[in-house]
Amino acid sequence: MKWLMLLLCAVSVSSLGTEFSGKVQAVWHQSDLPTTWLESGTGVTRFDDNDVALQQTVMRIKHTVVPSFDVQVDASYYADGDQHLGLTQLQLIYKPLLPSRIKWRARVGFFYPEMSLENVDTNWLSPYTYSQSAINSWIGEELRTAGAEFILYRPGRAVRSPWSWEFRAAVFKGNDPLGSIISWRGFALHDRQSLHHERLQFAPYPTVIDTNVIWHPDWVEPFTEIDGKWGVYVGLHLDYLRQTQLRYYYYDNLADPNAVNDQRLYAWHTKFHSLAMQHNITTKTRFIMQWMTGDTLMGEHFVYTQYDAFYAMLSHRQDRHRFSARVDIFDVDEDDIFENDQNNSHGHGITVNWRYDVSDHWQVGVEYSRVHSDAANRVQFNLPTAVTQQQTLLVSEYHW
Amino acid sequence: MLRYYATPLIILLAGLCVTASVRAQSPPVTVSVTVLDNTGLPLPGFAVSLTPAEGAAPVTDTPHAVMDQINRQFAPHFLIVRKDTQVRFPNSDSIKHQVYSFSAAKRFALLLDKDSEADPLTFDTPGVVELGCNVHDWMLGYIYVVDTPYFSASDDKGQSEFVVPPGSYTLSIYHPRMQEPQEILRRELTLTKNQTLRLPLTRALLPDFSQYNADDEFGQYE
Fold it and tell me: In B, what residues contact A, Cβ < 8 A?
């Protein structure tokens, strides 16, 4: 928060070269139980009742300090969750002017790896659906790069090629508990990004909080450094004209799974592959997909899960209308020493969305999602393991 | 000594006066140029210029031109200007651009905030200026600077027409998609009467990649 205040002060001194963008979304939601994980339940949708709420309140400030050097801050306010106001990203971006055909740029700070082709709106939101894919819902709540990313890239057009490429490599710290939430709650579909320093709540599974079993709190602070080790990721972007994009990432936080801090948070050794693709079928219609596969290990095999998730989405713009439909499949399989601490979960979901631009600044939208999740550890609360939740959202948005 | 040189000097001056008088009185000639590709099809949008051998008259009124940024593209993609033209770089987009050139004819970098405009730049060296944007790497544009008042872009039939005083000229054509060195297609012309010329390219055009112009409404994290 101090960072944000300092930055706002710095920006207010001079508005030259500063861009402000953001949006406020108010929602009327009709949602099924079980209780959302944000309220310590086992549900996998953000809301669990019928009410009016703030869906998103986000602001991005991008300030050009000197040409080629930008500071970008993403801040959010949420009424739900543990913390209400905070940063989701803060990055210093350096992109030198280079005459060469192969160029480089870099960024440092606290930011998302750009592995998603879904989250391309301001503040890493999705312009397609309100509830994001299972993959990027998880990325939004548990993954951030607190470190530095170096990018070597060759734009295609300047060399008369239809192909453009980027190679990315990053080192980071402060993402050791990554994997906790999907190993216990499982994947979910939502747009509640975690804020820096935020505590991410989940259900108080007896085996998790029992000091004789896992002995872990019923929450996680995802951006915590526990073992002092650096993590790495590498990524490759390949674009054909501006029609087709392919992104492959390999992520490994290289954590020591036996490291534990005094809050009883573990360093989870988490690694995965992510492959994303977008193809613009026409100028109005696009197909987007992403597949992720990986595993995570905590303690002396106290928790070990392998996970896979996939989504495919079709989105079509017609004048002021955008129609999007997405299917999700997700699966978490355990293979660890605590059989009574169940980690198996799997499910699938469908989300359909219509958004209409009323004016340059106002948008309204309707979304229906139906997600079926089967989480073995719901038996610990005497709940059926398989649950189908439906959620309807009516959203009014103002953006600038 | 002075007398020794006086006679030829008078003859020379008299000759120049007569020549100038004849030129001033000679009717202008019309030159029609058609640019064709290597298969004989007309090429629109090519820069065609006629540069007087004795040099172009100096610019009296500073010419102006505009290279805009619209939907994250240079507009126009290819701009032809006379030497000493002041080119404005407005930004019609709601996001910033950083326009640059590393070309020998004009090296510069301009940071253009949304809805802003930098001071115009004077393009005072003939040649090709390749433009890029350091924010949007797919943006590409060209400014072609010619040292003559006689220039145009070929029309849909690949044609350009000039009405010029009789005399000696260099005819040049240029387009960013042309593969040949400009010298190959350069012609020295002595114009005393109307002329029609056909200039076929010897090599195929480079791909245009206009698909890069497709504007994705969602920028990449920008």
Answer: 95-96, 98, 100, 102, 109, 111, 113-114, 130, 132, 134-135, 137-140, 206-207, 209, 211-212, 214, 216-221
